[in-house]
Amino acid sequence: MAALSTATREVFIEGVRAVLETWPVLQIAVDNGFGGMYSKQKAEWMVDAVQQYFHDNADLQLYEVEDFLSEVMNNEFDTMVDDGSLPQVAEAVCQMFRQCQQGKLSEVREQINQLVKVKGSGRVKATPVKNPAGEEEESEEEEEDAAESMECEAETEGSSSVATAQKQQEPSSTQSPDEDGWTVVRRRK
């Protein structure tokens, strides 16, 4: 893709920033520190990296932009994007670049304004799942006690529990012993 003039390049940078700041996957990664303590700085760097990628490479295809974004998310935020948003984000950035190349800066600014409105309406948050009402969380001491009691039971029962479990398991019509003594489980038809 052809290089942009300085003024056009700045509009494109604003567009990339608007697209990335409204991308829920990136928002979650930044808000939850998936990129470490410098997650916000990495997100800002990503804006520059994307615009530089377009500046340095001619005739970029959509799949190349998707791959680039995916690689950055994986390397910098330890995040695999599998929510289906990657093609949409790549298409939005490619479309803005094409419009900037064609001198349609007013259209790009309008898209940026729409994205800023979306951004202002709220951010996506990853929240931990809470226990259902009435259930209390086990304290660490209770968990340790339970683990210790399981270890003690396992040590006292030893191999006799394994033999008992094998005796209780009777071969059904879907299981047949192999010549080596292994039980082969077959699918019911």
UniProtKB/TrEMBL annotation:
Stretch forming the signal peptide? none
Q: Does the keyword Heme apply?
A: no
Q: What spans are recorded as compositionally biased (Acidic residues)?
A: 134-156
Q: Which domain of life is it from?
A: Eukaryota
The Gene Ontology biological process annotation of the record reads: rRNA processing
Q: What does this protein do?
A: May be involved in 20S pre-rRNA processing.
What protein name is recorded for this chain? Pre-rRNA-processing protein TSR2 homolog
